[in-house]
Amino acid sequence: ASDQDLSGMSVLVTAGPTVEPIDPVRYLTNRSSGKMGYAVAGAALRRGARVILVSGPTALKPPHGVEFIGVETAREMFDAVLAHYPHVDVVVKSAAVADYRPKEAAQHKIKKNQDQMTIELEKNPDILAELGRRKTRQILVGFAAETKELEKNALRKLEMKNLDLLVANDVTRPGAEFGADTNIVKLVYPGQIIVQLPKMDKKTLADRILDEALNLRASSQ
Ligand code: C5P
């Protein structure tokens, strides 16, 4: 990638897990580290883009110079992303958004006076699907972490969410697990085009994803 080839462009990146409260001291979440999204945000910044990073809680420091919006729940992420969507050029949606949230978060700490307890869950909004519905000129890049039927699920998501590119990884493969510094992915494009990439550093992959987004943007204009 040449220097500053993203200058003049706005890139919205989501990263990390969401956390969904059960009561004031407990929550549901997942194993996302945020490394992939932060790498994309850092790479886009280095290449001259304006970068908005919407992130759930992670142990990482936001790259210096990004516009950082910290969120906890999927609904907060939804609001932050939708608010910025109309004026960005590229969206890279690497956050692991919780599919379900506790139906009601208890006001007070739940006491352990039952032998068994049930938490009722309800579905969170699918942020990326909503972006797909509202897409005008943005290049939309999604991620999919799967443990089986990777290609089939990836093709289905690409189509259902109206994406331009889906980065699919099998999280059961060594080197592609949650929290790793490397990833092994397939790039999936409309028209059932699937490109297997070798195992690479998340930073290298971040630049590769931005290269692809730039190409897609050039060919859609
Ligand atoms: O369907 P699945 O959750 O595997 O899709 C993954 C992609 O969709 C990721 O890019 C993720 O950030 C996005 N997503 C979302 N909102 C959700 C669930 C997933 O934006 N509620």
Word description of this protein:
The protein is an alpha/beta fold and 221 residues long. The chain has one domain (10-105, 121-220): 3-Layer(aba) Sandwich (Rossmann fold), CATH 3.40.50. Helix content is 27%, strand content 27%. It has five helices and 14 strands. The strands form four sheets. An eight-stranded mixed sheet has the order 5-4-1-6-9-10-12-13, sandwiched between helices. It has a two-stranded antiparallel ribbon with strand order 2-3. The longest helix is centred in the last third of the chain and has 19 residues, at 202-220. The chain binds cytidine-5'-monophosphate. The site of cytidine-5'-monophosphate has 14 residues, from helix 3 and strand 9.
CATH architecture: 3-Layer(aba) Sandwich
Bound molecules: cytidine-5'-monophosphate
What is the tally of beta strands? 14
Structural class based on helices, strands and sheet pairing: alpha/beta
Which strand-content bin applies to the residues?
25-35%
- What name does CATH use for the topology? Rossmann fold
Total count of domains: 1
* Strand arrangement, major sheet: 5-4-1-6-9-10-12-13
The radius of gyration over CA amounts to 18 Å
- CATH homologous superfamily designation: CoaB-like
Q: Could you estimate the helical fraction of the residues in percent?
A: 25-40%
Mean pLDDT: 96
By DSSP (H or I, 4+ residues per run), the number of helices equals 5
What shape does the CA trace take?
Answer: globular
The H-and-E topology, N to C, reads as EEEHEEHEEEHEHEEEEEH
The description of the largest β-sheet is: 8 strands, mixed
Alpha-carbon distance between the two ends: 20 Å
Poorly predicted sequence stretches spanning 5 or more consecutive residues:
none
CATH class equals Alpha Beta
Domain DNA/pantothenate metabolism flavoprotein C-terminal: 6-214
Organism: Pelotomaculum schinkii
Pathway: Cofactor biosynthesis; coenzyme A biosynthesis; CoA from (R)-pantothenate: step 3/5; Cofactor biosynthesis; coenzyme A biosynthesis; CoA from (R)-pantothenate: step 2/5
Binding site for CTP: 99, 109, 125-128, 143, 157, 161
